[in-house]
Structure formats: structure tokens, C-alpha cells
Amino acid sequence: MEKTNLKSLTLTQMEEFIKQLGEPVYRAKQIFKWIYKGQTEFEKMTDLSKDLIARLKDCAYVGKIDIYKKYESEIDETTKYVFALEDGQMVESVKMKYSFGTTACISSQVGCSMGCAFCASTEGGMVRNLAWWEMADEVIAIEKDSNVKISRVVVMGSGEPLLNYDELIQFLRILNSPLAFNISYRRLTVSTCGIVPKIIRLAEEGLPITLAVSLHAPNDDIRSSLMPINERYPILQLLDACKYYIMKTKRRITFEYILISDINDTEQCACELSNLLKDLLCHVNLIPLNPVEGKKFKKSDDSRIRKFEQILLNNGISATVRREMGSDINAACGQLRRSLLVR
Ligand code: SF4
Q: What is the pLDDT of residue 343?
């Protein structure tokens, strides 16, 4: 008989499973809590009876992803993880320490099909979606390894989360569950390259999370040259979906804008961007490019970055330059996995 992976069960499903074993339902909560404390061995779930432990071992297991490699920054407390999944695939996650708590950046797919020109995660395409429990296990594994409670999660690693929609939503619910991670929805961020129908669906989901939209350009010409998705959902369509999201959730949207030298970092681009976003409840995160080996793009110099930010601010657009974390382990998203795969 194939064993059931208890980590892949929601609490309701766990209760059903426990009932089928003829055990009292409260056992499900006990096991559920142990799983989210990072425990994978039934013997160490100390409030379970010996008999139940023996029966669980016969028919169930607690799935887990393993740390394959870990890179710790020596200049700040950023850690990058490469996790090996049960089928041998690999994904990256990052732990970042801020004054307000510790954030985990989580991958939602192995690879990515979106083809953004500046991104390493998309080289080799999308291999598969992650199951919600694998995303949850990225957080569990980081907490267990670092002995730190994660207080914010950003789904911004490899993959387009909205193309793995159902698993993403279940992952967000488990992050929020008091018996699992107990993180407020307001501390959860989902990033998208702009899948318009899914933004609209997410707006109707009723989850007060933060939506981060990877914009990276102030017009369709530049955006299409960087992000193939723009051919399908051009900027004005994307912004309409963003307005709908703001209207439904009353949440401010974050626009991510990677600054690439001489491509999208000119004063004209900053002015165009200001025009595009005026009157929108939003914040712009300006991100200095983290160059990917083999790609032609260069990082903007600091004075350009500051000038760009200033133009947005002068035009009444809320904007900040994202602090570079772990610059000594500065492999951009997807680069670590790729470098390990080609070895
Ligand atoms: S930037 Fe995001 S959406 Fe674009 S290819 Fe990379 S992982 Fe995919």
C-alpha cells in the first residue's frame, strides 16, 4: 500500500484520515501542529500514543524537502538555500533579516516558462509546479535550519505563482492558519509578471495579501522586449487589472522595477512611469539589476538609480530603492539552481 504523505493534507483532510484509522479527531490537530514545528518522525511526536505511532508508520510518512546547498552572507544575515525535492528537482529560497522580522522568499515552480530576458530562472523553461506543501516546506525547512520564526513570506523566487494558482492559494491559507504558521495575510506578498485573468481572480479571492507586479518598463515597447508576457497582456490591460485589484482589496499594489542600464533607467522612462502610475494606490520598488552571467544587461550606476527615484518622488509616486541583500552571495534568482544543474 502506498503511504500517505501527511504533510500534503490540510487539517480537514488530516481529520478525515485520522477518522479512517478509527482514532479520535483531536489526534489530527496534534499531528498537524507537529508537522508545522518541523517534526517528521512520528516517534518524536511525544503526545501520540505508541499504538498510533506504530499504525502511522505503517500507512503514512511526513514528506520533506532537503537542504542541498546553503550560502550564508558574511555581510548581512541573508541565507540562500537550494532545496532538493523528493523527485530530485531543485528550487531556491532566501531568508532575509530585516529590523521588522525575518522574511522568506519562496519559489512556486521549478524553473519558469515566462521567458523574462533578464532572469536566470527561465533558462531551461518550466519543469513543474510545486505542490502547496512543498512551498510550505520551504518555510518549515528555513525555520528549522535557522531556528528563527519567519514573520513575512514573499512568493518571489523562481516561477510565476499565478500560473500555479490553486496550490498557491492553499499555501497562503496554510501560512495564515493559526495551527500552522499563523502569519497575517498582510505580511504575505505574491509577485506576478502580469497574468491579467489571474490578478482579477485573486482580487475576488478575498485574501488581503500584497500583490507585487513586475512592471520593469514604462511602455509596451520596452516591456515587450524584456517580458514576453507583455505581448499577451499589454501595460494598459495590466494596469486595469491592478486598479480592479485595488478596488476589491483596498490594498496598495507594489510595482517591481528592475533598473537596467540604458534600457529602462533614463529620465524619460522615469517621467513616463510617473505618468503611468499617477492616481494609483501603489508603491514602486526600484531594484538594481543583479546581472546574470551570459546576459547582455548591465546594472545602472548609483547616480542614475537615485535620479530615477527622485523623479518618481517629485511626481508624487511613492518609491524606494530596494536594499541589496547578501551581495556577497549575489547569485540572482535562479542562478544557483542553474549553476548546480550544469555541473
Ligand atoms: S522574472 Fe519571474 S516570471 Fe519572469 S522568468 Fe523569472 S521567475 Fe519567471
A: 35
Marked catalytic residue, from 92, 123, 143, 309: 92
The residue to mutate among 108, 119, 224, 335, having the most atoms of ligand 1 within 8 angstroms of its beta carbon, is 119
4-61 and 66-341, same CATH topology: no
Domain edges within the chain: 4-61, 66-341
Under-70 pLDDT residues of the chain: 327, 330-343
Q: Under CATH, which number does the domain 4-61 receive? A: 1.10.150.530
Element (H, E) at 36: helix 26-36
CB environment 42-63: b (16+ within 10 A), e (fewer)? beebeebeeebeebbeeebebb
Mutation to probe ligand 1, out of 112, 129, 290 (largest number of atoms < 8 A from CB): 112
The architecture that CATH gives domain 66-341 is: Alpha-Beta Barrel (3.20)
Active site residue 333: yes
Specify the amino acid at residue 263.
I
Q: Residue 248: what pLDDT?
A: 96
pLDDT at 342: 42
Q: What is the pLDDT of residues 38-64, one digit of tens each?
A: 999 999 999 999 999 999 999 999 999
